[in-house]
Design brief:
With 551 residues, this protein is of the alpha/beta class. It is built from 17 helices and 21 strands. Strand 14, helix 10 and strand 15 form a beta-alpha-beta unit.
Length: 551
């Protein structure tokens, strides 16, 4: 049978154990139809031939934890992500506010928490730029907000305001007056809830922009790890109208501790609506929980106190018993729990909740996910494999950058600091591992994360030999975590993630074979093309994305 496309002229890395490498691949009707000599023989007069030009064809990447709508909208505000000092941030805010006099609120996303000592940002610094309109900026991890005095006033935060449940209003030294730094969602959301929401059309446009960025990085599947009720409509519109989307996605509905039982019927109904409306592009089988915060802000839940704050174990978003009840309830409805947990206390509570759900609901193929898993107590590491928990890790975080050296390590000390991001140890234990970017927290390009997983070094090559080098993994293993690992997380390992005849032609063409590329060069390896079900979504001559309803 004549193929629609034949790829030749380079290395084809299938990711399949039975035939890891070949030299050609054929695609027919959106699926892989042949490999090697059989693929070359399938070339006919109407076959499109793609010359790999000495590069490599691989399974396309997934991203097991990302925030596409929120990240896309974050690009619309003051451009603070690239700022390298507090003064730079203030100037960026001043300039954007001057350019947008019609904006009621000034927002911005992605500045580095280490720009101020101990991550303490003063409202007065922003007042100097914008005294008369509210300003709210979120750090790159989205767990901390820096606000000006007008934003504090509108939120009703004063010296008499107690810390809200699940949050912290940072105070001035020797005073109860709010400083201008808000930590965790209990303190951040009361401010963000006051910000006018962009229109539905603006959110759809932001999602399309995000999807195009990921397609250009070789990604064809996303796990949206925080879907608010209105986000489902944004996804459905983007998938079913206009050009469609260049990626597939699973939607992870956010479930918080307040009134969670009342939300369960809505989640089940939304799952049916999403999957019935955007068949082939969207699934909605995930529920997202937050077990804790982040270490750099002192809000991740730890088993032992913080080294720099001996009275604090961090902030737990749920009580252990209530999280177990909620996870058990969504598991009983057939959802896949996806739990944010960074501290070893948060990880333990998440594992306990998953174990409780399995005990209560009985055996099934549930594939629960714990995202980030920055710090795991040694006694809990084997439980990932024992409970069938997927560790969704962000490999780009596994380096001694300034966030790590200036904020994280002083908070947890050397012993705990030496067992962070245990990628190799989890794999050796038999646990399933998938990779993700957590974009817009950090860069969305999988090849940058793969380079860090292999080297455990900063982009400057520090330290020699890698940070915690026992946790380094090889390139092939890192590639698999971003492809087959994500496909397993998506319950789609029979459809994509490796290159076998019959599977979807979700493909990425790299300019060189990554396995033969020097590890530090992986981050800069060009993505020449991306295909979703045999349809080109990035690269020369890219056609319209895949519409909903196409398998």
């Amino acid at each position: 049978m004549q193929a629609d496309i034949v790829f030749t002229g380079g290395t084809v890395r299938t990711g399949a154990a039975e035939r890891p490498v070949t030299d050609a691949l054929a695609v027919t009707c959106g699926r892989i139809s042949a490999l090697g000599a059989e693929a070359r023989a399938a070339r006919g007069p109407r076959t499109a031939v793609v010359d790999l030009r000495g590069g490599a064809l691989l399974p396309a990447f997934g991203d097991g934890h990302v925030h596409p709508v929120m990240g896309g909208l974050g690009l619309l505000g003051a451009p603070v992500r690239a700022c390298t000092s507090v003064a730079d941030v203030v100037e960026a805010v001043r300039h954007w506010a001057d350019e947008h006099p019609e904006a009621e609120w000034i927002t911005g996303d992605g500045f580095d928490a280490w720009l101020a000592e101990d991550g303490r940002f003063d409202a007065r610094w922003l007042d100097a730029a914008v005294p008369d309109r509210p300003v709210v900026l979120r750090t790159m991890d989205h767990h901390t907000a820096w606000v000006n005095t007008e934003a504090l006033r509108r939120a009703g935060f004063t010296a008499a305001t107690p810390d809200p449940e699940g949050g912290q209003i940072v105070r001035r030294e020797g005073s109860s007056e709010p400083l201008g730094t808000l930590r965790e969602f209990g303190a951040v959301l009361p401010v963000l809830d006051l910000v006018p929401q962009p229109s539905h059309e603006a959110q759809v446009a932001a999602l399309r922009e995000t999807a195009a960025r990921f397609a250009a990085a070789g990604v064809t599947w996303l796990q949206d790890a925080w879907v608010e009720p209105h986000h489902a409509d944004v996804w459905i519109t983007a998938a079913t109208s206009g050009p469609g989307l260049p990626v597939r996605a699973d939607l992870g509905f956010f479930l918080g501790p307040e009134h969670w039982r009342d939300q369960l019927p809505r989640l089940a109904a939304e799952r049916e609506r999403v999957e019935g409306t955007a068949r082939g592009l969207l699934t909605a089988h995930t529920v997202k929980f937050f077990a804790d915060g982040v270490i750099e802000s002192g809000t991740a839940a730890l088993l032992e106190p913080y080294a720099d704050c001996p009275h604090s174990h961090g902030i737990a978003h749920w009580t252990p018993a209530e999280l177990a009840r909620a996870v058990t309830a969504v598991d009983a409805l057939g959802f896949q729990p996806h739990i944010h947990a960074l501290g070893d206390g948060g990880v333990r509570v998440a594992l306990d909740a998953i174990e409780d759900a399995a005990r209560t609901n009985g055996p099934r193929d549930r594939r629960p996910v714990i995202a980030h898993a920055q710090l795991i107590d040694p006694s809990d590491l084997p439980r990932f494999a024992e409970l069938g928990v997927i560790a969704n890790l962000q490999p780009l975080w596994a380096q001694p950058d300034r966030l790590m050296t200036d904020l994280v390590l002083p908070k947890i000390g050397p012993e705990r600091g030496a067992r962070q991001y245990q990628i190799a140890a989890l794999l050796a234990s038999g646990a399933r591992v998938s990779f993700g970017s957590d974009w817009p927290v950090t860069d969305h390009e999988p090849l940058r994360g793969i380079a860090t997983a292999v080297t455990r070094q900063t982009p400057a090559g520090f330290p020699e030999g890698g940070w915690l080098p026992q946790e380094r993994i090889d390139t092939a293993t890192a590639l698999a975590a971003y492809s087959a690992g994500c496909a397993y997380q998506a319950f789609q390992e029979q459809e994509w993630g490796v290159l076998r005849p019959g599977m979807r032609a979700d493909l990425v063409h790299l300019a060189a074979d990554p396995v033969g590329t020097a590890p530090h060069d992986l981050a800069h390896l060009p993505v020449v093309g991306t295909w979703l079900a045999g349809r080109r979504t990035h690269g020369s001559g890219t056609p319209a994305p895949l519409p909903a309803g196409r398998p």
